[in-house]
Amino acid sequence: MDSGAGESSAADDYESLMSTTDAELLKTAWRNEKAAPEILNFAADLVQRSRQQIQLMEEMVDDYINDGVDPLTVSLYQIDLDRTMFLLRSYLRTRLQKIEKYVFHIQKTAEEWNRLSKQEQKFASRFAGDIKNHLDQSVLSRLPDQYQSHLRQSAASEEDDMVPEPQLDSYVVCRSKKYLGTYQLDDGGEELINIEVDDMYALPYKAIKPLVESGQVDLV
Amino acid sequence: MYGRKASELVKEFASVEHGQVFTFNNDLFAQVLEECDGHLLHLQPLMRKIQEHEDKLKDKSRSQEEIGISEDETSKSQDEKTLIQNALKSDQFGALVHHLSLVRNKRCLMAYVYKRAEVIRSLGWMVDSVLPETIQEKLSTSEKEYFKNHAATLQSYMAELDLHLTVDMIPPKDPYIKVRVLDDIGEIALSDQVANLARHAIMFLRRTDAEQYITQGQMEELTG
Which residue in chain B has the smallest CA separation from A77? Predict the structure, then answer.
Protein backbone atom coordinates (compact mmCIF):
# COMPACT_ATOMS: atom_id res chain seq x y z
CA MET A 1 0.00 0.00 0.00
CA ASP A 2 1.31 3.38 -0.94
CA SER A 3 1.19 5.38 2.25
CA GLY A 4 2.01 8.57 0.40
CA ALA A 5 -1.40 8.63 -1.28
CA GLY A 6 -3.21 11.88 -0.49
CA GLU A 7 -6.67 12.13 0.94
CA SER A 8 -8.24 13.00 -2.36
CA SER A 9 -7.08 9.76 -3.91
CA ALA A 10 -8.45 7.69 -1.04
CA ALA A 11 -11.61 7.06 -3.02
CA ASP A 12 -9.65 5.94 -6.09
CA ASP A 13 -7.58 3.64 -3.95
CA TYR A 14 -10.74 2.26 -2.52
CA GLU A 15 -12.18 1.49 -5.93
CA SER A 16 -9.06 -0.28 -7.04
CA LEU A 17 -8.95 -2.24 -3.84
CA MET A 18 -12.50 -3.40 -4.22
CA SER A 19 -11.76 -4.74 -7.67
CA THR A 20 -9.16 -7.06 -6.17
CA THR A 21 -10.88 -9.96 -4.58
CA ASP A 22 -9.36 -9.94 -1.13
CA ALA A 23 -12.77 -9.62 0.46
CA GLU A 24 -13.83 -12.73 -1.43
CA LEU A 25 -10.60 -14.50 -0.53
CA LEU A 26 -11.12 -13.68 3.10
CA LYS A 27 -14.63 -15.01 2.93
CA THR A 28 -13.36 -18.24 1.41
CA ALA A 29 -10.62 -18.60 4.00
CA TRP A 30 -13.13 -17.97 6.74
CA ARG A 31 -15.58 -20.54 5.38
CA ASN A 32 -12.89 -23.15 4.88
CA GLU A 33 -11.62 -22.61 8.38
CA LYS A 34 -15.13 -22.91 9.79
CA ALA A 35 -15.88 -26.14 7.94
CA ALA A 36 -12.57 -27.98 8.13
CA PRO A 37 -12.14 -30.31 11.10
CA GLU A 38 -8.45 -29.49 11.50
CA ILE A 39 -6.60 -26.20 11.62
CA LEU A 40 -5.59 -24.87 8.19
CA ASN A 41 -2.64 -22.79 7.12
CA PHE A 42 -2.73 -19.28 8.48
CA ALA A 43 -3.52 -16.88 5.63
CA ALA A 44 -0.83 -14.44 6.77
CA ASP A 45 -0.63 -12.27 3.64
CA LEU A 46 -4.36 -12.13 3.23
CA VAL A 47 -4.91 -11.09 6.83
CA GLN A 48 -2.28 -8.41 6.54
CA ARG A 49 -3.75 -7.03 3.32
CA SER A 50 -7.25 -7.12 4.77
CA ARG A 51 -6.13 -5.15 7.78
CA GLN A 52 -4.55 -2.52 5.59
CA GLN A 53 -7.72 -2.26 3.58
CA ILE A 54 -9.81 -1.97 6.67
CA GLN A 55 -7.63 0.87 7.87
CA LEU A 56 -7.94 2.58 4.54
CA MET A 57 -11.69 2.19 4.54
CA GLU A 58 -11.92 3.57 8.04
CA GLU A 59 -9.96 6.65 7.04
CA MET A 60 -12.11 7.06 4.00
CA VAL A 61 -15.37 6.80 5.89
CA ASP A 62 -14.08 9.39 8.36
CA ASP A 63 -13.16 11.68 5.48
CA TYR A 64 -16.59 11.28 3.96
CA ILE A 65 -18.25 12.15 7.24
CA ASN A 66 -16.09 15.24 7.59
CA ASP A 67 -16.70 16.26 4.00
CA GLY A 68 -20.44 15.95 4.46
CA VAL A 69 -20.97 13.27 1.84
CA ASP A 70 -24.48 11.87 1.55
CA PRO A 71 -25.13 9.86 4.77
CA LEU A 72 -26.61 6.98 2.81
CA THR A 73 -23.43 6.52 0.80
CA VAL A 74 -21.38 6.69 3.95
CA SER A 75 -23.51 4.11 5.69
CA LEU A 76 -23.15 1.75 2.75
CA TYR A 77 -19.39 1.96 3.02
CA GLN A 78 -19.73 1.59 6.76
CA ILE A 79 -21.68 -1.64 6.35
CA ASP A 80 -19.07 -2.96 4.00
CA LEU A 81 -16.39 -2.09 6.49
CA ASP A 82 -18.30 -3.73 9.32
CA ARG A 83 -18.72 -6.91 7.32
CA THR A 84 -15.05 -7.14 6.52
CA MET A 85 -14.23 -6.54 10.17
CA PHE A 86 -16.60 -9.28 11.16
CA LEU A 87 -15.06 -11.73 8.68
CA LEU A 88 -11.58 -10.98 9.93
CA ARG A 89 -12.47 -11.26 13.57
CA SER A 90 -14.52 -14.37 13.10
CA TYR A 91 -11.70 -15.95 11.09
CA LEU A 92 -9.18 -15.33 13.86
CA ARG A 93 -11.67 -16.42 16.52
CA THR A 94 -12.48 -19.67 14.76
CA ARG A 95 -8.78 -20.46 14.60
CA LEU A 96 -8.30 -19.73 18.29
CA GLN A 97 -11.17 -21.99 19.19
CA LYS A 98 -9.70 -24.78 17.11
CA ILE A 99 -6.34 -24.28 18.76
CA GLU A 100 -8.00 -24.47 22.15
CA LYS A 101 -9.75 -27.68 21.24
CA TYR A 102 -6.76 -29.55 19.85
CA VAL A 103 -3.90 -27.79 21.57
CA PHE A 104 -2.01 -30.89 22.75
CA HIS A 105 -2.36 -32.49 19.36
CA ILE A 106 -1.18 -29.40 17.52
CA GLN A 107 1.73 -29.00 19.88
CA LYS A 108 3.14 -32.41 19.16
CA THR A 109 2.60 -32.43 15.39
CA ALA A 110 5.19 -30.16 13.83
CA GLU A 111 3.23 -29.91 10.61
CA GLU A 112 0.17 -28.47 12.29
CA TRP A 113 2.23 -26.32 14.62
CA ASN A 114 3.77 -24.62 11.62
CA ARG A 115 0.36 -23.68 10.29
CA LEU A 116 -0.09 -21.22 13.12
CA SER A 117 0.96 -17.61 13.02
CA LYS A 118 3.64 -16.46 15.46
CA GLN A 119 1.04 -14.89 17.72
CA GLU A 120 -1.08 -17.99 17.56
CA GLN A 121 1.88 -20.14 18.53
CA LYS A 122 2.46 -17.94 21.54
CA PHE A 123 -1.21 -18.15 22.39
CA ALA A 124 -1.19 -21.94 21.99
CA SER A 125 1.82 -22.36 24.29
CA ARG A 126 0.33 -20.21 26.98
CA PHE A 127 -3.04 -21.83 26.57
CA ALA A 128 -1.58 -25.33 26.86
CA GLY A 129 0.21 -24.29 30.03
CA ASP A 130 -3.00 -22.89 31.50
CA ILE A 131 -5.14 -25.91 30.83
CA LYS A 132 -2.42 -28.32 31.94
CA ASN A 133 -2.05 -26.49 35.24
CA HIS A 134 -5.76 -26.55 35.72
CA LEU A 135 -6.02 -30.28 35.02
CA ASP A 136 -3.00 -30.98 37.23
CA GLN A 137 -4.46 -29.08 40.13
CA SER A 138 -7.95 -30.48 39.82
CA VAL A 139 -7.32 -34.10 38.96
CA LEU A 140 -3.90 -35.36 38.05
CA SER A 141 -1.92 -34.40 41.14
CA ARG A 142 -4.50 -36.23 43.22
CA LEU A 143 -4.19 -39.50 41.30
CA PRO A 144 -1.63 -42.27 41.87
CA ASP A 145 1.84 -41.68 40.37
CA GLN A 146 1.50 -43.85 37.30
CA TYR A 147 -1.68 -42.10 36.28
CA GLN A 148 -0.58 -38.48 36.34
CA SER A 149 0.10 -37.80 32.68
CA HIS A 150 -2.29 -35.51 30.87
CA LEU A 151 -1.50 -37.17 27.56
CA ARG A 152 -1.64 -40.83 28.52
CA GLN A 153 -4.20 -42.79 30.43
CA SER A 154 -1.55 -44.48 32.52
CA ALA A 155 2.17 -45.18 32.54
CA ALA A 156 1.36 -48.51 30.88
CA SER A 157 0.07 -46.85 27.71
CA GLU A 158 2.56 -47.09 24.92
CA GLU A 159 1.54 -43.90 23.17
CA ASP A 160 -0.36 -40.72 23.92
CA ASP A 161 -3.88 -42.07 24.01
CA MET A 162 -5.69 -39.24 25.71
CA VAL A 163 -5.18 -36.37 23.29
CA PRO A 164 -8.21 -35.01 21.48
CA GLU A 165 -7.53 -35.10 17.76
CA PRO A 166 -9.51 -33.65 14.87
CA GLN A 167 -11.57 -36.24 13.06
CA LEU A 168 -10.22 -36.06 9.57
CA ASP A 169 -12.65 -38.58 8.15
CA SER A 170 -15.70 -36.52 9.04
CA TYR A 171 -17.79 -35.41 6.11
CA VAL A 172 -17.65 -31.88 4.74
CA VAL A 173 -19.66 -30.18 2.06
CA CYS A 174 -17.53 -28.74 -0.69
CA ARG A 175 -17.78 -27.02 -4.02
CA SER A 176 -15.22 -27.20 -6.77
CA LYS A 177 -14.01 -24.09 -8.52
CA LYS A 178 -13.08 -25.90 -11.69
CA TYR A 179 -13.47 -29.19 -13.49
CA LEU A 180 -11.09 -31.70 -11.93
CA GLY A 181 -12.06 -34.83 -13.80
CA THR A 182 -12.03 -38.15 -12.07
CA TYR A 183 -10.71 -37.96 -8.59
CA GLN A 184 -9.61 -40.84 -6.43
CA LEU A 185 -11.27 -40.79 -3.04
CA ASP A 186 -9.31 -43.39 -1.12
CA ASP A 187 -5.85 -44.89 -1.27
CA GLY A 188 -7.14 -48.20 -2.55
CA GLY A 189 -8.40 -46.57 -5.73
CA GLU A 190 -11.77 -48.19 -5.33
CA GLU A 191 -13.90 -45.10 -5.38
CA LEU A 192 -13.63 -42.60 -8.17
CA ILE A 193 -15.78 -39.56 -8.61
CA ASN A 194 -16.13 -36.95 -11.27
CA ILE A 195 -15.64 -33.47 -9.89
CA GLU A 196 -17.50 -30.90 -11.96
CA VAL A 197 -17.41 -27.13 -11.71
CA ASP A 198 -19.72 -25.65 -9.08
CA ASP A 199 -21.19 -28.98 -8.09
CA MET A 200 -21.61 -29.64 -4.41
CA TYR A 201 -20.30 -32.81 -2.83
CA ALA A 202 -20.40 -34.25 0.66
CA LEU A 203 -17.10 -36.05 1.04
CA PRO A 204 -14.81 -37.17 3.85
CA TYR A 205 -12.46 -34.29 4.60
CA LYS A 206 -9.44 -36.59 4.44
CA ALA A 207 -10.10 -37.41 0.79
CA ILE A 208 -10.18 -33.84 -0.44
CA LYS A 209 -7.67 -32.35 1.98
CA PRO A 210 -5.03 -31.72 -0.72
CA LEU A 211 -7.62 -30.00 -2.91
CA VAL A 212 -8.64 -27.69 -0.07
CA GLU A 213 -5.04 -26.86 0.68
CA SER A 214 -4.27 -26.02 -2.93
CA GLY A 215 -7.43 -23.93 -3.15
CA GLN A 216 -9.04 -25.96 -5.93
CA VAL A 217 -12.02 -26.80 -3.81
CA ASP A 218 -13.89 -24.62 -1.31
CA LEU A 219 -15.65 -25.87 1.77
CA VAL A 220 -19.14 -24.65 2.39
CA MET B 1 -19.83 -51.28 41.43
CA TYR B 2 -16.56 -49.80 40.32
CA GLY B 3 -16.77 -46.68 38.22
CA ARG B 4 -20.38 -45.88 38.99
CA LYS B 5 -19.66 -42.65 40.85
CA ALA B 6 -17.44 -41.43 38.06
CA SER B 7 -20.12 -42.11 35.50
CA GLU B 8 -22.61 -40.18 37.65
CA LEU B 9 -20.24 -37.25 37.53
CA VAL B 10 -20.14 -37.32 33.76
CA LYS B 11 -23.88 -37.83 33.50
CA GLU B 12 -24.39 -34.79 35.68
CA PHE B 13 -22.46 -32.73 33.18
CA ALA B 14 -24.31 -34.24 30.24
CA SER B 15 -27.71 -33.56 31.77
CA VAL B 16 -27.13 -29.83 32.08
CA GLU B 17 -28.17 -27.68 29.18
CA HIS B 18 -25.34 -26.99 26.80
CA GLY B 19 -23.21 -24.01 27.73
CA GLN B 20 -24.64 -23.64 31.23
CA VAL B 21 -22.47 -23.57 34.30
CA PHE B 22 -23.49 -25.54 37.35
CA THR B 23 -21.93 -25.93 40.75
CA PHE B 24 -18.75 -27.96 40.84
CA ASN B 25 -19.65 -31.23 42.53
CA ASN B 26 -16.88 -31.32 45.10
CA ASP B 27 -18.35 -34.18 47.09
CA LEU B 28 -18.75 -36.62 44.27
CA PHE B 29 -15.45 -35.53 42.77
CA ALA B 30 -13.63 -36.25 46.02
CA GLN B 31 -15.38 -39.60 46.32
CA VAL B 32 -14.21 -40.66 42.89
CA LEU B 33 -10.66 -39.62 43.76
CA GLU B 34 -10.93 -41.70 46.91
CA GLU B 35 -12.08 -44.64 44.85
CA CYS B 36 -8.95 -44.24 42.74
CA ASP B 37 -6.77 -44.48 45.82
CA GLY B 38 -8.73 -47.56 46.84
CA HIS B 39 -8.00 -49.18 43.51
CA LEU B 40 -4.33 -48.46 43.93
CA LEU B 41 -4.35 -50.10 47.36
CA HIS B 42 -5.75 -53.25 45.77
CA LEU B 43 -3.52 -52.98 42.79
CA GLN B 44 -0.18 -52.75 44.55
CA PRO B 45 -0.28 -56.05 46.50
CA LEU B 46 -1.60 -57.79 43.38
CA MET B 47 1.31 -56.47 41.35
CA ARG B 48 3.71 -57.72 44.01
CA LYS B 49 2.07 -61.13 43.97
CA ILE B 50 2.28 -61.30 40.19
CA GLN B 51 5.97 -60.55 40.43
CA GLU B 52 6.45 -63.30 43.02
CA HIS B 53 4.58 -65.83 40.92
CA GLU B 54 6.59 -64.98 37.87
CA ASP B 55 9.84 -65.28 39.80
CA LYS B 56 8.80 -68.65 41.13
CA LEU B 57 7.91 -69.88 37.67
CA LYS B 58 11.28 -68.79 36.38
CA ASP B 59 13.06 -70.55 39.22
CA LYS B 60 11.19 -73.73 38.51
CA SER B 61 11.95 -73.88 34.86
CA ARG B 62 15.57 -72.99 35.50
CA SER B 63 15.98 -75.74 38.09
CA GLN B 64 14.31 -78.15 35.70
CA GLU B 65 16.79 -77.39 33.00
CA GLU B 66 19.81 -77.50 35.25
CA ILE B 67 19.27 -80.74 37.09
CA GLY B 68 18.09 -83.77 35.24
CA ILE B 69 15.20 -85.25 37.20
CA SER B 70 13.18 -88.42 37.03
CA GLU B 71 9.85 -88.52 35.20
CA ASP B 72 7.93 -88.84 38.42
CA GLU B 73 9.31 -85.59 39.72
CA THR B 74 8.80 -83.87 36.40
CA SER B 75 5.08 -84.46 36.47
CA LYS B 76 4.96 -83.32 40.07
CA SER B 77 6.73 -80.10 39.31
CA GLN B 78 4.49 -79.74 36.28
CA ASP B 79 1.47 -79.82 38.59
CA GLU B 80 3.02 -77.19 40.80
CA LYS B 81 3.72 -75.08 37.80
CA THR B 82 0.11 -75.19 36.67
CA LEU B 83 -0.95 -74.23 40.14
CA ILE B 84 1.27 -71.19 40.15
CA GLN B 85 0.22 -70.27 36.66
CA ASN B 86 -3.42 -70.34 37.68
CA ALA B 87 -2.74 -68.15 40.68
CA LEU B 88 -0.76 -65.84 38.46
CA LYS B 89 -3.62 -65.56 36.01
CA SER B 90 -6.23 -64.81 38.63
CA ASP B 91 -3.99 -62.14 40.13
CA GLN B 92 -3.33 -60.68 36.72
CA PHE B 93 -7.02 -60.39 35.97
CA GLY B 94 -7.68 -58.92 39.39
CA ALA B 95 -5.01 -56.32 38.76
CA LEU B 96 -6.42 -55.62 35.32
CA VAL B 97 -9.87 -54.92 36.72
CA HIS B 98 -8.47 -52.42 39.18
CA HIS B 99 -6.23 -50.87 36.57
CA LEU B 100 -9.06 -50.45 34.09
CA SER B 101 -11.36 -49.03 36.75
CA LEU B 102 -8.69 -46.54 37.68
CA VAL B 103 -8.19 -45.51 34.07
CA ARG B 104 -11.91 -45.19 33.59
CA ASN B 105 -12.24 -43.04 36.68
CA LYS B 106 -9.41 -40.89 35.49
CA ARG B 107 -11.05 -40.40 32.11
CA CYS B 108 -14.32 -39.43 33.75
CA LEU B 109 -12.65 -36.95 36.09
CA MET B 110 -10.66 -35.47 33.24
CA ALA B 111 -13.72 -35.22 31.03
CA TYR B 112 -15.62 -33.49 33.80
CA VAL B 113 -12.93 -30.88 34.39
CA TYR B 114 -12.08 -30.48 30.72
CA LYS B 115 -15.66 -30.02 29.58
CA ARG B 116 -16.30 -27.53 32.34
CA ALA B 117 -13.21 -25.67 31.27
CA GLU B 118 -14.69 -25.43 27.78
CA VAL B 119 -17.85 -23.88 29.15
CA ILE B 120 -15.82 -21.47 31.26
CA ARG B 121 -13.84 -20.44 28.20
CA SER B 122 -17.02 -19.81 26.24
CA LEU B 123 -18.07 -17.44 29.02
CA GLY B 124 -14.83 -15.59 28.48
CA TRP B 125 -16.07 -14.53 25.05
CA MET B 126 -19.17 -13.03 26.56
CA VAL B 127 -17.91 -11.10 29.55
CA ASP B 128 -14.75 -9.08 29.90
CA SER B 129 -12.30 -10.77 32.26
CA VAL B 130 -14.57 -10.52 35.33
CA LEU B 131 -17.20 -13.15 35.98
CA PRO B 132 -20.42 -12.24 37.75
CA GLU B 133 -20.61 -13.55 41.30
CA THR B 134 -23.46 -15.92 40.68
CA ILE B 135 -21.15 -17.80 38.33
CA GLN B 136 -18.04 -17.42 40.49
CA GLU B 137 -19.82 -19.30 43.25
CA LYS B 138 -20.25 -22.33 41.05
CA LEU B 139 -16.59 -22.71 40.14
CA SER B 140 -13.83 -24.51 41.97
CA THR B 141 -10.75 -22.55 43.05
CA SER B 142 -8.69 -23.97 40.25
CA GLU B 143 -11.38 -23.09 37.74
CA LYS B 144 -11.47 -19.47 38.87
CA GLU B 145 -7.74 -19.28 38.46
CA TYR B 146 -8.00 -20.95 35.07
CA PHE B 147 -10.53 -18.41 33.90
CA LYS B 148 -8.24 -15.56 34.91
CA ASN B 149 -5.24 -17.12 33.23
CA HIS B 150 -7.15 -17.81 30.07
CA ALA B 151 -8.53 -14.29 29.93
CA ALA B 152 -4.99 -12.94 30.30
CA THR B 153 -3.72 -15.25 27.56
CA LEU B 154 -6.45 -14.11 25.24
CA GLN B 155 -5.84 -10.48 26.11
CA SER B 156 -2.17 -10.71 25.33
CA TYR B 157 -2.95 -12.30 21.97
CA MET B 158 -5.35 -9.51 21.11
CA ALA B 159 -2.93 -6.87 22.34
CA GLU B 160 -0.20 -8.27 20.10
CA LEU B 161 -2.57 -8.23 17.17
CA ASP B 162 -3.97 -4.86 18.19
CA LEU B 163 -7.44 -6.12 17.36
CA HIS B 164 -10.41 -6.73 19.60
CA LEU B 165 -11.89 -10.14 18.99
CA THR B 166 -14.62 -10.17 21.61
CA VAL B 167 -16.88 -7.82 19.67
CA ASP B 168 -18.67 -8.58 16.43
CA MET B 169 -19.89 -11.98 17.53
CA ILE B 170 -22.77 -12.06 15.05
CA PRO B 171 -22.63 -11.07 11.40
CA PRO B 172 -23.63 -7.41 11.07
CA LYS B 173 -26.72 -6.32 9.17
CA ASP B 174 -26.80 -2.62 9.90
CA PRO B 175 -24.07 -0.40 11.29
CA TYR B 176 -26.55 1.20 13.70
CA ILE B 177 -28.92 -0.60 15.99
CA LYS B 178 -31.67 0.58 18.27
CA VAL B 179 -31.02 -0.17 21.90
CA ARG B 180 -32.60 0.47 25.25
CA VAL B 181 -30.23 1.27 28.09
CA LEU B 182 -30.97 -0.86 31.14
CA ASP B 183 -28.47 0.59 33.55
CA ASP B 184 -27.13 4.02 34.42
CA ILE B 185 -23.88 3.89 32.52
CA GLY B 186 -23.27 7.62 32.34
CA GLU B 187 -21.46 9.84 29.89
CA ILE B 188 -19.41 7.67 27.54
CA ALA B 189 -17.26 8.60 24.57
CA LEU B 190 -18.35 6.27 21.79
CA SER B 191 -16.58 5.89 18.49
CA ASP B 192 -18.73 8.50 16.75
CA GLN B 193 -20.29 10.58 19.51
CA VAL B 194 -20.31 11.30 23.22
CA ALA B 195 -23.52 9.92 24.59
CA ASN B 196 -25.23 10.08 27.91
CA LEU B 197 -26.32 6.51 28.55
CA ALA B 198 -28.98 6.95 31.18
CA ARG B 199 -31.31 4.19 32.26
CA HIS B 200 -34.36 3.64 30.02
CA ALA B 201 -32.98 5.81 27.25
CA ILE B 202 -33.66 4.48 23.77
CA MET B 203 -31.01 5.36 21.24
CA PHE B 204 -29.36 4.54 17.96
CA LEU B 205 -25.79 3.40 18.49
CA ARG B 206 -23.04 1.95 16.42
CA ARG B 207 -23.39 -1.80 16.71
CA THR B 208 -19.75 -2.25 17.68
CA ASP B 209 -20.21 0.27 20.49
CA ALA B 210 -23.39 -1.26 21.80
CA GLU B 211 -22.30 -4.87 21.62
CA GLN B 212 -20.16 -4.90 24.75
CA TYR B 213 -22.96 -3.38 26.81
CA ILE B 214 -25.46 -5.86 25.44
CA THR B 215 -23.35 -8.88 26.37
CA GLN B 216 -22.94 -7.46 29.86
CA GLY B 217 -26.69 -7.04 30.16
CA GLN B 218 -26.56 -3.27 30.47
CA MET B 219 -28.44 -2.74 27.23
CA GLU B 220 -30.92 -4.63 25.14
CA GLU B 221 -31.37 -4.55 21.43
CA LEU B 222 -34.77 -3.50 20.19
CA THR B 223 -35.79 -5.38 17.11
CA GLY B 224 -38.70 -5.05 14.76
Answer: B175
